[in-house]
């Protein structure tokens, strides 16, 4: 059974710092990996989607990498801002596409101090 | 529509009551998923539809949970005889080319 672990569980840093969130998964046979952001009481907002054949994806100040063979992904946030405060969730989808749903980690709760 | 719409946004049910949660996916998205998110946890898979066919319901926690999508668009998640442990946020998502779009969820509180 696929298991996804996110480290750290919580992180509080001053505004302006660059930071890295980590995600690991036990079964490397994934179809893709997706990073989401969740604000309190809200649904999930997709940030970046990395297909299994890709190594990284970038969107603005966000960069996500994927090392499928080692079962790891990182989300890099450059020049953090208070508006980045949220819970960040990593999720993987099983190989072969099709019916496989996402398996999520428990998330990293991020606070950016003004 | 432009996004995945879920209703109601909040639901308070007395223990033993039946509830129905609605999901209106993005038009044209054939794949639809339901997830359950307990407080402080990541979402957990409940069930999956491709058009009107329920292809995977392995995540449904008990036979009190039932989902349907009769015309391949709107889906309803029904929970019978609600229990306190059913309290959670229920998220619906539709999928296109591997990317998932989630609704804002229904927060169910069973008292």
Task: Summarize the SSE layout with pairings.
The complex is a heterodimer of chains A (114) and B (111).
Chain A: E1 4-7, E2 10-14, E3 19-25, E4 30-38, E5 44-51, E6 56-59, E7 62-67, E8 72-77, E9 86-94, E10 102-104, E11 108-113
Parallel strand pairs in A: 2-11
Antiparallel strand pairs in A: 1-3, 3-8, 4-5, 4-9, 6-7, 7-8, 9-10, 9-11
Chain B: E1 5-7, E2 10-13, E3 19-24, E4 31-37, E5 44-50, E6 53-56, E7 65-68, E8 75-79, E9 88-96, E10 99-102, E11 106-110
Parallel strand pairs in B: 2-11
Antiparallel strand pairs in B: 1-3, 3-8, 4-5, 4-9, 5-6, 7-8, 9-10, 9-11
Walk me through the structure.
The complex is a heterodimer of chains A (114) and B (111). Chain A is an all-beta fold. In chain A, 0% of the residues lie in helices and 59% in strands. In chain A, strands 2, 4, 5, 9, 10 and 11 form a six-stranded mixed β-sheet that branches. In chain A, strands 1-3-8-7-6 form a five-stranded antiparallel β-sheet, with no helix packed on it. Chain A is globular. The model of chain A has no long low-confidence stretch (mean pLDDT 92). Chain B has strands spanning 5-7, 10-13, 19-24, 31-37, 44-50, 53-56, 65-68, 75-79, 88-96, 99-102, 106-110. In chain B, the strands form two sheets. In chain B, strands 2, 4, 5, 6, 9, 10 and 11 form a seven-stranded mixed β-sheet that branches. Chain B has a four-stranded antiparallel β-sheet with strand order 1-3-8-7, with no helix packed on it. Chain B has 111 residues and is mainly β. Chains A and B meet through strand 4, strand 5, strand 9 and strand 10 of A and strand 5 and strand 10 of B.
